[in-house]
Amino acid sequence: MASQHVAAFGHSLLPEASDDSQSSMNWVAGKRALASQEVNLKRRVRIALAYDKFELQMINENDDTLGVFPLSGQNPSTALSFVRTQARSMGLSGQDVQPISHFELPAHPTQNGAPYMMTSPKLHQEAARYRQNATVLLQQLAAQYEYASDVATWPHHFDTGSVITVKFDDTSNPEKTIGMGFAPADDNCPEPYFYVSHWMKKGDAEYTALPGLPKGGEWKTGAWKGALLPASAVVSFSEGADQFELAGQFFKKGIEASLEILEETAVKA
Predict the structure, then answer these.
(1) Is 40 in contact with 141 (CB distance < 8 Å)?
(2) I need a labelling partner for 97 at 20 to 30 A (CA). Which of 4, 181, 235, 242 fits?
(3) Where are the domains of the chain?
(4) In this predicted model, what pLDDT tens digit does every residue of 59-100 receive, in sequence order?
(5) Which superkingdom (predicted)?
(6) How far apart are CA 38 and CA 26, in angstroms?
(7) Which long-range contacts (CB under 8 A, 24 or more apart) does 169-173 make?
(8) Residues 6+ apart with CB under 8 A from 253
(9) pTM score, two decimals?
(10) CA–CA distance, 234 with 236 (Å, rounded to integer)
């Protein structure tokens, strides 16, 4: 939930994009933090959520910290006040920053005023490692495709991912796409997971003969359609190189299968 304050900064202060990317976030490895899109005020600034310290920060274009707000014991109202105070320090009105309201989030006690709490520093550090490793792998994969979007984290689902457009319509809008990413536990999987999904504007996909996936991977063909790999399958390997290899093979197989399902090919970079 704390990431919503980060996303609100860019969402409130940047022009609305067709894909809602003004509200997306990027991983800043050196800060081990999720940061908003950059806003050019008195200088280029972002709001960031630092995982290890569990605090909000305002950072500049060099990732220097300009303001800090520890989150433990604070509630969403006081966190929003910090973000608004940072906006005022850059010459804006605090009311220029508003919470995002165009999608609903799963119920959480902080929505009713409960405080944020860092219950386990080790869990925060582990979450940062997952987000860091996923970002590195996804950036490498996205670089292989001409029409892959930048890797970003989205506030409505908190997944980190990229979308590969494999077919455009006559007006250059996506008609068929493949999504790849890393998501928190949800209705699809009770633990964090890597995923490959696909989408087509028209028609229905055929799922009678799905190819096999690397160990631990599985196909879902219900309301959500795609392949997923639970984090537990990845960390069953003790060596980082083996974990990276498994996740990489999962994405390779999932993308190849999705291209077959969509009956398309992807333009390589």
Answers:
(1) no
(2) 181
(3) 3-119, 122-262
(4) 999 999 999 999 999 999 999 999 999 999 999 999 999 999
(5) Bacteria
(6) 10
(7) 169/201
(8) 211, 212, 213, 214, 217, 227
(9) 0.93
(10) 5
